[in-house]
Every structure is written in C-alpha cells, then in structure tokens.
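Chapter review: from sequence to fold.
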Amino acid sequence: MAASRVHTRCLCCLQKLFPKPKLNPKLILNNFSSNFNLVKSRAVSSVLSKDGWGKGAKFEPFQVMVERRRSEASRSILFFLSERSCLENLIEYCNSHGKVQNCFEFYQNAYFAVVEFKKKESVKLIQERVYSSRGIGRFNDELIQNRLLKYNIKSSQASTIRPKNIVNKDFPNSQLIKTVCHGDSVSNQIEMLATEQALTDEGIRMRFLVCTLIEDACRKMFPECEVLPFGSSVNNFGKRNCDVDMFIDPKIGHGMIPVAQSAKKFKVEYDQSSADNERIATQNTLRTLSKYLEKCVPHCTNVLKILHATCPLVKFKHQALGLSCDLTANNRGAIDSSEMLYIFSKLDKRVQPLVFLIRHWCRYHGLTNKNPGQWITNYPLTLLVVVFLQTRRVPILPKLVDLINADLSFDDIDYSFPDLKGFPHQADDTSLADLLHEFFVFCTKFDFGNQGLSVRHGSVFHNDSRFPLFIENPLVYHLNCCKNVTKALVTKLRSSAAEALWVMDQPGFLDSTPWGIGMLFLTPRKLEKIQKEQNVAAFGKRVGRVLGLFPN
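The token string follows.
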C-alpha cells in the first residue's frame, strides 16, 4: 500500500475497491501486525493416563497450551461493531478473505467481536485492504498499526435489542449464593462456584490477544521481543475480572535499553549502569516503555509506572478490551510459577474448585484484598491449599521435588516438568465438601507461629523467623511468600476457620436458606438469626414430642 494512501485522512470505502456480494463494509484500521515466535515447549506428555495423577483427564502441557493460545491470538482481529452492523455480516465478510476458525461478540462500552482466522495470511489480507484515518500511533514517524478494525455496515439483520455479553465481569456474592443454592450437594455447590468465577475461553482469548497486540507494537522498538502472559491468565486459577500480568523479553544485547529521544521518537542504546545492574536495566526499560505505551500505542490508557516495587512494573488499561494490565520485564521466573500451579490444577480435578472456594471465602472475610497491605495474596493462599493437599494423611498432590526434573538445592534453575503420564497416585475419593471441612480444621489447628509450609518438599518445617506466617517460595526456597502478613491477620484466619467449622457442623447447614456453602458467606447477624430460628424450631419439636404430637 502506498504511503500516501495510508496517511490519507478520509475514510475510504472498501466496497469501491473490493466489491463483495451483499456487503458494503467500511473498515477503519487503527493501527500493525507482526510475526510471532512460538515459545519452545519443555513439556512432553499430552495425556495423563493409567493410574497417574489426574486419572482420566486430558492434559495439555503448559507450554503447548501457551503456544496454541498465542497462535490463536496472532490469527485474530478485534472488530469494533457499529450499532447498525451485525455479527453475521461480519463473519460473512471475513470468510470471503479466509476461513474463520472462531468468533465471539462482547460488550465493553460498545460492541466488539474477536474473529480468529485459520491462517495468518487472512489477517494480512484484510489489513492490506483498509486505510488508516485517526486514532493512529506513531513510532519514529512510522505508523503503529494493530489488529483493531471498525466494521461499519448497516444490516437488515441488526437487532434493536442486542444482548450485552460482558466477558470480564465478576458476579456479586449475592448472585453467587443464589446460584450455588441450586446445587444438589455441597461438593456440587463448590464446583458450581468455580464454574461461575473461572475465566471463560473468551476471557482467555482476550488476554492472549492483548499480549500479542502489545507485542506487535513493541516490535517496532524490539524486533525480536516477546510479550507473554503469566499468573492468573494462564495458571488455571484466573477469575473473570482478573488483571492481565504480562512480561516483555526484549531479546536485545546485555546493557542495551530503549531511550526516548522525544515525545514519539525512541532508540535502543548501550547503558553502562544497566549493564552493571539488572534491576536498573529493568527500571530503565520500563520507564521508556511507559512513555511509549502512553504516547504511541493506541488504546493504552491510565499508564502508571511503579519502578521501585520489589518487582518493577507498568500498569495500564487496554481501553478496547477493557483489561487492566501489569507489564514487567525480564521476569521469566513468573512463567515457572504459573506452570507449576497450572500442573497442580490439572493433577486432580478437585484442586481448582477447592482453591476458588477458599479464595472467595478469604476475600469475603477480609483475609485477602486487591490492594497491597497486610493481607494474604492469591498466590501464597493457593500455595497454602496445595500444601494442605500434599500433607494430609492420603496426599492428593505430589511434592514439587517429585514433580520437577531439577536439582532443587539451587535457586537459579531452568525448571523442566517431566512426562506426567503414569505419575504415581494414591487413590483417594474424598469429596470436595469433606476436603473443605478438613482445610478449616487444618487452619484452626496448625501452629503458624512456629511452623512453616513447603510446597517444594510437601512438608512442614520449623519456623524460626520473625514472620507469623511462613510459606516458602517454591522456586526460591529461602524466601517467604507471606512476609507482609501480620500476626493479627493470622489470628483472624484461625478464628474465621473455626467459625466456618462451626457453621458446617450445624444441623441446619444442609437445610437452611441459603444452605450449604451459602451459609459460609452470610453476615454474623444473618447467621445469628438463622441459628435462633433453628433453636425455636428444635424447641417446638421437643415440646411436640412431650405432648405426643410428633414421633421421636
């Protein structure tokens, strides 16, 4: 496409250039697509079989899953749909450029659609047939394009009332309680809560898409860079409204950092202080990237750099996808942690729903908080559940040392997970309800002040530190994941667990309104009211038996 035509300010109609039957689409290209490199997979197995962990479950290795999702995202276009357009016409138009593999519509202050093509060439073909008008980012006077297009064609099929599919929305506690009360058992309720809270396929696709869009833009500065998601987006414990944690690997020489020459001009140059100190290199890289995202990359808003945190990061929001993002640099250790949790979640089908229930319970009772402070964060809380499942009388999860092909006596390890097929497994059919009860017993009786917890060895060890809660970092064994947690919060954890045990042991736990796990999320006043009603009912039955009105 000629440069003069790319820079035109008038919106050109594709129909005049490339007529399509029954269609007159108008597409606006807001910004570029680039090649992506697949992550090298370290996993071997694709299925867990025999009597191994996760018996009967299909197992997709972590790196294979990441490769597949990145491939899907790189073959996808994000379309903004005008009010007069419809998804059916968009799909018809896209199919005229190549086979559409997947498509879904969502609402984020406007209607959008994500269309995945079978071949990447189809994406490039559509991009070659559109023109830029406004909302364009620039890097050193070159256009920064991305795969966000506007589809603006009036359709007779367009409905005046369109359902709003809000993908990244978490359900309020009251709605969750109503939903789980339709379960047929407490274990079924726990599974239902996890289903209602877990990331959907659409939510995962959107998170990988935003990473590839940022990667496309950053490759103007770092041609070989990768932007990879980690944390909740990929570890199988992500909620529908979770942020997108991502890190950029610039793949440039040691000591090389990006530098801003002006508001929209950048270059990469050697910096001695960055060469001498990796943290300084990370801070300098993120400082420049924050300017780049804010000034040059379309749809990135609310950019905030936090460079003096333990792990420096840049926070921003992708306006079109409605996703809050945290960008870090040179943080491949986070991928190892994500893979570890992903595999734990796949080894037994009870792990994920149990973690979701306990996370929600902790959040409801003020033990976790999205803001930094004294609270337990989701990562160590998940590790707490993992250690509980490792150390019970019949372990449900293996020790990390038995799972990883690595010498864990060192910290700097390229963690490699083995072929998991046929991994030894002790049969255990304990229900989710009983596991939840066991967990509360564990939290009530465990001596957090004098004992620490190790996922690495699946064991308890003597805690001679000053920390009231010590959960060993599985990948850096001498670090405590809970060093911010206060003694008061640990006391609250124990008392909240004791209260939950009391609720689960009540006769009305299975026949109250709400019943089952719904009772774990009631206020003390409502619990007291239910208890009084149960006491009155029980007293009435006793009087009735005395008078001979009810059988014993």
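Two observations follow directly from the output. Residues 201-334 form a domain with the Beta Polymerase; domain 2 fold (CATH 3.30.460.10). The chain has three domains: 3-151, 177-198+345-504, 201-334.
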